[in-house]
Amino acid sequence: MHNIIMNRLTKDEQVKVISCLVEGNSIRSTSRLTGIARNTITKLLVDVGSACAAYHYKHVRNVNSKRIQCDEIWSFCYAKAANVPEEKQGEFGFGDVWTWTAIDADSKLIVSWLVGDRGAGCAHEFISDLASRLSHRVQLTTDGHRVYLTAVEDAFGSNIDYAMLVKIYGEDRKEETRYSPPKCIGAQAAKIIGNPNPRHISTSYVERQNLTMRMQMRRFTRLTNAFSKKLENHIAAVSLYFMYYNFCRTHQTLRVTPAMEAGILDHIWTVGEILNLLNIETA
Questions:
Q1: What is the mean pLDDT of residues 90-97?
Q2: Contacts of 15 (CB under 8 A, 6+ apart)
Q3: Angle at Cα 114 formed by Cα 113 and Cα 120, nearest 5°?
């Protein structure tokens, strides 16, 4: 598959395609901007996304983090849950799809991520993966999603300072419920394991990351027809996004990429270097 894509597109054409995708363009708009067929763009996305996921799995390890924040962001594939055909009801990849993210509060590095449902199984897989990537004890903050409780205990035991931040919402306004959640009127911090510092019990950075994801991946934009039609394409887009965010995109506050701030890299990657992973990860 990789060789077929390489034969169809020059390296410059591949760079143009990936550059469009990571800046929030849809596949259709990327096709219009580059003159390259949508199917070819999709195949390149899937190939590059797979290579990015493999690179992240191997190389984002032994992260020297102090504070981690976790959250889940909703999206859907194929159709919204209420519109999924009866024969596909309950089949993952049709309807609600959640992306679990763990961000280093200091370097802004996305340490771990997982595309799945919002159940206990995915929570355990996600938190176990996060634990395997950290070099020492950290302070962890999650929202009040109860599946985190057992997942964190199973993955870290007592070797963590863990707190939940449970937000309190006011009553829904009927005219707003379709487009936005109720107004947050407060938050309650709960210490779960260890001795988390109250000053650092926060999910602000990971929630801000949710906004960045919706801005930079067209298929996450609400109230549009830009949703993912296939789960494979959705996972590939997420993999590419996190690779570009961690390794290529200069953080406005840090003035370097998250990977550089975390000590994983010594320079800013180009889109061309991401494309080089097609050869490295399949060699």
A1: 89
A2: 271, 272, 275
A3: 120
Our separate counts of H helices and E strands in the chain read 10, 6
The per-residue pLDDT for range 231-243, each reduced to its tens digit, is: 999 999 999 999 9
In angstroms, the CA 76 to CA 70 distance is 20
Q: Give the C-alpha separation, 206 to 71, whole Å.
A: 6
The C-alpha atoms of residue 269 and residue 259 are separated, in whole angstroms, by 10
The secondary element (H helix, E strand) that includes residue 47 is: helix 38-59
Taking the alpha carbons of 250, 103, 51, 119 in that order, is the dihedral positive or negative? negative
Task: List beta partners, residue 96.
Answer: 76
Split at pLDDT 50, 70, 90, the class of 228 is confident
- Name the strand (E) or helix (H) holding 11: helix 11-22
b/e 214-244 (16+ beta carbons within 10 angstroms → b): bebbbbbbeeeebbbeebbbbbbbbbbbbbb
Mean pLDDT for 192-220 is 91
Environment class of 197 (CB within 10 Å of its CB; exposed 0-12, middle 13-18, buried 19+): exposed
Structure tokens at 72: 């889940």
- Angstrom distance (rounded) from CA 30 to CA 41: 8
> Is 206 within 8 Å of 101 (Cβ atoms)?
yes
Residue type, 89: Q
DSSP 90-124: T-TTSEEEEEEEEEETTT--EEEEEEE-SSHHHHH
pTM given for the model = 0.89
Per-residue model confidence as pLDDT tens digits over 31-74: 999 999 999 999 999 999 999 999 999 999 999 999 999 999 99
Domains of the chain are 2-280 (3.30.420.10)
